[in-house]
Specification:
255 residues; alpha+beta; 10 helices; 15% strand; elongated
């Protein structure tokens, strides 16, 4: 929006200067009008000419806005990386040690789609980890599905240690019996197929990203293959909350 406004200001200034020069050249609305306007102010045409050149070639408002956005984006990215670095430091206490690239932080945004035009789904807009392995699996959860979907449903922090369930539920029959007894939320409302597909990520944490009206617009999640008891600590929760505030205020700029 700010970028659009800056472009509009440049164009408006160029239009005013151009119209002024054209009006002077063709005596519009009249020669008497321009004679009386320029009496004692002969520099006005020069000012209009300079303004037309400056706003047409240099676009100062747009250029200033671009520099401002670039500086802000650099600061946001630096803040996100610093926060992720703190989480990596805390994850160093996990035993047995996590492999390089195991710990991952994801930024999710709520988006409406053709299949879900009203409520929408969560779309992963960025991932932070120290390597490209393991690759992210395609996942666009609806409200209530997965730890991020449950975070969306409750609009509050959601943390889940899936390790005991993954060790216990090794067949679809066991899975179905568990859901029947404890309800679908006990398995994060996942199907058996999705539950097995994500069984390599057992330490799951998510915290909301909200807009200025405290409405849920996305979330930050952290996951690892193990180590929930270490990652589920106040320091990680607070850092996730701080990053959520920054990203929410900047409307997911440079995430």
């Amino acid at each position: 929006m700010k970028q659009v406004m800056a472009v509009a200001l440049d164009r408006a200034a160029l239009l005013v200067a151009t119209v002024g020069l054209a009006g002077k050249a063709y005596n519009v609305p009249s020669k008497l009008f321009w004679d009386s306007l320029l009496q004692g102010h002969g520099y006005v045409p020069l000012v209009l000419l300079v303004a037309a050149g400056v706003f047409g070639a240099l676009t100062p408002f747009e250029s200033h806005q671009k520099r401002s956005v670039l500086d802000r984006n650099v600061n946001i990215r630096r803040r996100i990386l610093a926060g992720f670095g703190q989480m990596l430091e805390i994850s160093g206490n996990v035993q047995p040690p996590l492999e390089t690239g195991d710990l991952a932080m994801h930024v999710w945004r709520r988006k409406r789609t053709l299949r879900h035009p009203l409520v929408g789904v969560l779309v992963r807009v960025s991932t932070y980890r120290m390597s490209t392995y393991p690759l992210n699996q395609p996942f666009t959860p609806q409200k209530g599905v997965g730890v991020v979907g449950m975070c969306w449903q409750s609009n509050k922090e959601t943390f889940f240690d899936a390790a005991p369930l993954i060790d216990e539920l090794t067949t679809e029959a066991q899975f179905d019996a568990h859901v029947e007894q404890h309800g679908p939320e006990s398995v994060m409302n996942l199907s058996w197929r999705k539950f097995r597909a994500f069984n390599h990520r057992t330490a799951l944490l998510a915290t909301p990203i909200r807009d200025g009206r405290s409405r849920f617009i996305g979330c930050i999640s952290v996951d690892a293959s193990h180590g929930f008891e270490v990652l589920d600590c106040r320091a990680v929760r607070e850092e996730m909350t701080r990053l959520g505030l920054v990203i929410g205020q900047e409307d997911f700029e440079c995430t």
